[in-house]
Amino acid sequence: MTTTTAELAVRTAGLRKRYGDIDAVAGIDLAIRTGEVFGLLGPNGAGKSTTVEILQGHRTRDAGDVEVLGSDPASTSRAWRAKVGIVWQDESAPAELTVRETVGHFARYYPRPRDPDEVIALVGLEEKAGSRIKALSGGQRRRLDVALGVIGGPELLLLDEPTTGFDPAARRQFWSLIRQLAAEGTTILLTTHYLEEAEALADRLAIIANGRIAAEGTPVDLRRAHSSEATVEWTEADGSPRTEHTQTPTRTVAELIGRFDGEIPGLRISRPTLEDVYLRLTGQESVR
Amino acid sequence: MTTTAVATRKTAEERLPRAWNLGLHQGALELRQFFRQREQVVFTFAFPIVFLFLFASIFSDDVQGAGITASQLYVPAMIAAGIMSTSFQSLGISIAIERDEKVLRRLRGTPMPPSVYFLGKIWLVLVTGGLETIALLIVGTVFYDVDLPGDAAGWLTFGWVFLLGLTGCALLGIAISSVPKSGRSATSVVVLPFLVLQFISGVYIAIDTLPEWMLNLGALFPLKWMCQGLRGVFLPESAKVLEVADSWEYGRIALVLGAWCIGGLLLCLGTFRWKNRRDS
Hints:
The complex is a heterodimer. By secondary structure, chain A is an alpha/beta fold. Chain A has 2 domains: 5-216, Rossmann fold, CATH 3.40.50.300; 225-287, no CATH class. Chain A is built from 10 helices and 12 strands. Chain A has helices at residues 48-56, 78-83, 99-108, 116-122, 138-150, 168-183, 195-201, 219-225, 249-259, 274-281, and strands at residues 8-19, 22-33, 37-41, 63-68, 84-87, 156-160, 187-192, 204-209, 212-217, 230-235, 241-246, 268-270. In chain A, β1 (8-19) and β2 form a beta hairpin. By secondary structure, chain B is mainly alpha-helical. Chain B has one domain. Chain B has 11 helices and 2 strands. In chain B, α4 packs antiparallel against α8 (183-200), α4 (70-100) packs antiparallel against α10 and α10 packs antiparallel against α11 (250-271). The chains are: A alpha/beta, B mainly alpha. The interface between A and B is medium-sized, with 32 and 32 residues.
């Protein structure tokens, strides 16, 4: 890789954190480039949140080097916090204030905030701008969390499971929000246990299991690297279905063309989906 | 594009918002939140007024040789307790809850200077403590024959006792908010010591009837001295005979309350946590 440190928004090497006897994070190396959307994908308890909390500067680490926007998050300044937007997994906002009051007040903490009304519109809460927060639904509160995360116009946005509990429509709406922020040049690190979410949003992703990175790359790379074996299915002349697992599906098909005159009945060639790869890498294959 | 962004960010660092102005906004927001919780408002203000009414109505006889009634004695006592309840008790409980509900963690994730949070709480306590005191003074003067100070010196004394007492108690409240492990246990952790202090500082029970060791224990904390200072402001000179030293001891009051302001500040700086213990 030719990427220099200066182009990296986040860099960790040998990151470790133990809780009692459990290695929550057991040696994680990350290199997130400026401007990219990076997905940290893994099942619950894999170490995603701990990793992100260390990057935010809100959790101590036991070992390893960490650099976020050029600083160690364990000892940061107000100027650094102005450049990092955070959306936690479990948030709560002042129930008695309205959406506009809250977003407008948080804007005051930052040196170069975005326009509060524009941010409220960005997360789709215009109609709720005058409502007290206690009157919002769960999904609306989550969008408010995102609004508070981006109100300072961050260079880096850290999102911990932002869409947990969203219905499918709200999730799609949220995805377009993330794409818009990414298009504006914000570097985004997002954790999720939804594979389709990582695949839809992330330029690159790391699959994390038992505190370690099991695989890393673009969604296409991951699928290619971990799914060289294809499955060829067809129906024999006597009507019996056949399945063959092979590294060379083209050769199999060439043989079939020779055997069948014209069309091969029921021909189907498939590669494992990213989900198959994910489940295998995180040791959850048996659940299928 | 990238270079201009970096350049503008550099100048932005120098323009991080100033703490004092932000603190005013924070205070306005705290007050707005407080007054929108109607139940909380009613009970916070009603509590000392109801207690004043009960005690001053039950014990209303003349106090022998002091030229005052027991009812009059309860007015400054309840004002002191009201100041402590709006500062120590309400901050101790509300900050513990805010910490538990991750409100503090979220603030810590922004470039807000920590002093802004405390400034906001100070404004909240000043306004609510002031309103509580006014309400109790109205009840005291209208129903229980308490006279307001006749001269500027009296009001000046009242002013510094109020401010030093409120500040010391607010800082103690911020400090105690770090003790409870969760927001749920905060009320019990904060209310018990407050209740004990009220008994041994001459709020519910007149100081001349308390055992000496209790008086000595109470004298370590600000409430006893706030009560004493306010008695000096609102009771006639003849009531001095009830005091331990036969005098209002303003110098000592200023010394103890001032010491609590400084000590409380150091205690807060040393112990304040933005997260629950299990979250670090």
